[in-house]
Amino acid sequence: MKRSILTALLAGFASLAVNAGEYNISVDRVQIDTGDFVKEGIGYNGASPGPILRFREGEEVTINVTNNLDEMTSIHWHGLILPFEQDGVPGISFPGIRPGETFTYQFPIVQAGTYWFHSHSGFQEPNGAYGAIVIEPEGREPFRYDREYVVQLTDKHPHSGDRIMRNLKTSADYYNRQQQTVGDFFSESARNGFVATLRDRMMWGEMRMMKADIEDVQGFTGLINGKGPEQNWTGLFEPGERIRLRFINSSAMTYFDIRIPGLTMTVVQADGNNVQPVNVDEFRLGVAETYDVIVHIRDEEAYTIFAESMGRSGFARGTLAPKEGMTADVPELREPPLLTMADMAGHMDHGDMNDDDMAGMDHGGAAMGSGMDHSAMGHGNMDQGSGSSLPQDPFYAQGSGLTPVASNGGRFLSYADLRAQNPLYEYREPTREIELRLTGNMERYEWSINGIKYEDADPIVLQYGERVRFKFVNETMMTHPMHLHGMWSILDVGEGKWNPLKHVISVAPATTVYMETEVDAPGEWAFHCHLSYHAAAGMFRKIVVEGGPDDQVDVSAVAREGGDA
Amino acid sequence: MKSWSRGVLLLPLIVAPVLSAHADKDRAVDAHSAGAQWGIGAEKFEYRYSDTGEELAVVEGDAFYGSDELKFRWLFEGEWEETHDAWETVENQFVAQVPVDDFWDAKGGIRIDTPKGPDRVYGVLGLTGLAPYWFEIDTNLYLSDEGDASVDFEAEYELLITNYWIVSATFETMVALSEDREIGVGKGLNYTEMGLRLSYDLIDRAFSPYVGVVHERKFGDTADFAEGDGGSTEDWFAVIGARIAF
């Protein structure tokens, strides 16, 4: 008897040894060379992007983070389910990591899949402070592959984050070089008639809104695993192999439309969670989202991974090749899309950011009136007018200029295609609904939730054990990737328990999207738009989960500690 | 002590509470909010050659610091005349600016004119913002230490030839509600100034050289005063300069 206890104990220790990993990360000033420019930035272990952290599900990780900067830093483990003190958000989870300090994170790994990590301090993330996380599952995966690569994208800009924020605040269209010109006016006049074109411009002009308002921050170089299009990140393979590509969008601001011309991609995972496989020709990777796809390459050819920004102002490019140095054609960027009246509808229905601003409402009403009168013309002006004949993606406004279309005319992944492979939660009725209007003032570059910026807002208080239904109403003309820390976002695609688990929910202009959250993580969490400059401008909330399984979490103590730092 | 210097001394009293309020903000807000911003630039930084051989250097610059809710702005306008080797216009405005609508800011403060001629100090109340159809508007009511009131109005429209070549059309006028003979201001419409400038964004939007034409015309008593002083009442200028923003 004694002996068996001893054996069990020893076995326990052994498994503990196997299942406890210690990792060291230093936060360093680094040089980032995109091929187009070299920029001083921030990286991990001397490089940007930082290392790929490989964990095992069930492992207890210890991560020592040493801050070699002369400013505060932090690391947030994006998408990981962990105790809130380990979540790495300064002022919410912990005070932050001081210059010279080594902070030790310690938490169990309770999930598997593709995730990432990044600084949650200031604009360190756009400045280069990000890396990938790959978690191997305890059990077998429901798909097969021979080889895997992390494909981590970013939109590296020659300006620092602080400077970009300042420029946007001074002039919201500072970086927008896709604005409609006199030339566009004449070519459109030739197509749609002078009067119709003039009316269209007057309509948008009256609202002081721009059709070309899709990418706030242009002028970046798209990077794949830290390499610019010319530097051409290459993943090698043997013909006949199935290759798993773990796509991660670590951009500050940029959505990417991704395709590998000549290959069909099988989407097997979204935001780290297995989904029922979907074959697609192209997919849109929102900021901070991840998708895992599997491609099967039979021949000894090179294939280009082509990631066009949603607004077509830039791209990232990499190659899958049987031999180093082999390349495939790099496609041209497609025509930039333009927003339509459909994308403006949310803004007009609800007036502007200030609820008391009836003047804004009146203006909106007037413009809508004239828009209605000439609705046929409005459609003609869509440029990508063919959009109306395509099957509608329910996650875009009807007639939206942003509705994605596969470049080969094939299948473009929609949120509506996502089904959980193995639901984590039983489906149950939500206990209540919280409406969150995504609001802003583009001209002033102010972003907010329910018209209130973070600095003026009270936290959203949730009760442990409830299931909350969040209703996102996008009243702006921008697309917002909303990220909830600490708990899963169950995207409502109308499939009950098969609704997929995500950590980022992208909400297109003038749409309403629902997600549900099982409130199963006590403590204080961040919740925000993951576009860096939208979050910093105020589209951010603190979420407080009251109560808990043991009700011992002293939330206020941590908050005080944070406040004193 | 000149009256305007008292006004300047009051400024720190306005600024100090704002700065200390900022310091009190909690860490989470500091770590995740853009906070106060600043900017400095010159909308006009140019040399003007008139059809009568007059040469002028003109600067219209501004600098600001502040949040979405409250900004402090310094506006400078200077006109240096080559032939007289003198500053015909030196105008400094110190204003606080608050949003009053999605697209409009109200501003209030003081304006101090210290040109070659007599000095003036004004109280300023203004409105600045973006009107429908993308007209940038700036209008102010001034009340001088001599008790004279005037109103100015500026509009600008930018036409994008391409996303880098930009034509900007400007219109500026001033109406005085009473005469201030000493500084050449007549009652009623004083002047209009219209400009057309073609610029190219050479370095981001930080440095945009331009060429253009400016038409200036004085009216009524103001025109008479100018003529009496040996000046002209209507001028065409060729201009060369740059728009600068940091």
UniProtKB/TrEMBL annotation, chain A:
PROSITE patterns with a match to the protein in the record: MULTICOPPER_OXIDASE1, MULTICOPPER_OXIDASE2
GO cellular component, one term: periplasmic space
Keyword annotations: Copper, Metal-binding, Oxidoreductase, Signal
Highest taxon, organism lineage: Bacteria
CDD domains, alphabetized: CuRO_2_CopA, CuRO_3_CopA
Annotated SUPFAM superfamilies: Cupredoxins
Gene3D superfamilies: Cupredoxins - blue copper proteins (2.60.40.420)
GO-annotated molecular function: copper ion binding; oxidoreductase activity
Leader peptide range in chain numbering: 1-20
Family annotation (InterPro entries): Cu-oxidase-like_N (IPR011707), Cu-oxidase_2nd (IPR001117), Cu-oxidase_C (IPR011706), Cu-oxidase_fam (IPR045087), Cu-R_CopA (IPR006376), Cu_oxidase_CS (IPR033138), Cu_oxidase_Cu_BS (IPR002355), Cupredoxin (IPR008972)
Domain Plastocyanin-like: 33-138, 221-311, 428-546
Protein name in UniProt: L-ascorbate oxidase
UniProtKB/TrEMBL annotation, chain B:
Keyword Nucleus found: no
Coiled coil: none
Domain of life the protein comes from: Bacteria
Native source species: Marinobacter daqiaonensis
Protein name, as recorded: Copper resistance protein B
GO-annotated molecular function: copper ion binding
Annotated InterPro entries: Cu-R_B_prcur (IPR007939)
One record GO biological process: intracellular copper ion homeostasis
Keywords: Signal
Tagged with keyword tRNA processing: no
